[in-house]
Amino acid sequence: MNFVSQLKTHHYSPSRIHYDRPSPSCPHSVQHLLKFSTSRPKYSAKQSIRVRSEFDAKVNAFLHSDSDSRFVDRQKALEAAMGDINSSFGKGSVTRLGSAGGALVETFPSGILTLDLALGGGLPKGRIVEIYGPESSGKTTLALHAIAEVQKLGGNAMLVDAEHAFDPTYSKALGVDVENLIVCQPDNGEMALEIADRMCRSGAVDLICIDSVSALTPRAEIEGEIGMQQIGLQARLMSQALRKMSGNASKAGCTLIFLNQIRYKIGVYYGNPEVTSGGIALKFFASVRLEIRPIGKIKPKEMKKLD
């Protein structure tokens, strides 16, 4: 039996031949020829990635070719499944991102040009935004600027004043149309979030600002005695409300801005002891989280220079 018939009989692949132990029946010249023809070139890391990507692209192009019957059958099954789901749950329940045109998220200005540039155009529509920081850092001022910008564009804005500290004079000085601003001063956290959710589902409000998460006191805590420990009430309230409001805001195109304060963990010696109130649900549902810190105070002499 010659060497060629031996390869055919045992189904040897040239790439699997071990050259350190040559076969006795294989001539040295043939071994050298096979080793030269099947030896792999040495690539660098970048070249290996490029060669592998080119190979994967060729394989994908072959598998996704229209001539492949398996690919055609899979596409037909996919279209049938999508049509069945859309007929059962409504049109647009399942769609391709390219045909839906939902890849781009619309934005509106926040009132601060540099912040809009950092956010890629401004605050996103139909999303949840959290603005947190220490006291007197400008959280409410930034929210009022955003409300003023929405009103300039002809939209409707709402302020849920859970802290009961709304100042119409200051808001008007920032450009807010106070007469057309929708204001709510709820009695408890459940009332505040329920009103905000109903206004969001109406589809007529473009921006709802909740000021603040720390002031969303649960009803059980208000009705209870002072000093009673109510563990996790506010966190459960926020988690339940955000599960509903996130989907409603996306469908209605209404932006929800939550203002939050910073608390400090007790007994933390390593790491950052700062934490935001209301649990961790807001961190998960928020598309944008803005941390605001004061860097200094403007003195009266500097105010005259700015004027």
From TrEMBL:
Sorted alphabetically, which CDD domains does this protein's record hold?
A: RecA
Going by the entry's taxonomy, the superkingdom of the source organism is recorded as: Eukaryota
SMART domains from the xrefs? AAA
**One GO biological process from the UniProt record?**
DNA repair
The UniProt entry, under InterPro entries, shows: AAA+_ATPase (IPR003593), DNA_recomb/repair_RecA (IPR013765), DNA_recomb/repair_RecA_CS (IPR020584), P-loop_NTPase (IPR027417), RecA-like_N (IPR049428), RecA_ATP-bd (IPR020588), RecA_monomer-monomer_interface (IPR020587)
RecA family profile domain mapped to chain residues: 104-262, 267-307
UniProt xrefs under NCBIfam families? tigrfam_recA
Which PANTHER family does its entry note?
A: MITOCHONDRIAL DNA REPAIR PROTEIN RECA HOMOLOG-RELATED, RECA
Family, as annotated? Belongs to the RecA family.
Protein name as annotated: Uncharacterized protein
- Species the sequence originates in: Cuscuta europaea (European dodder)
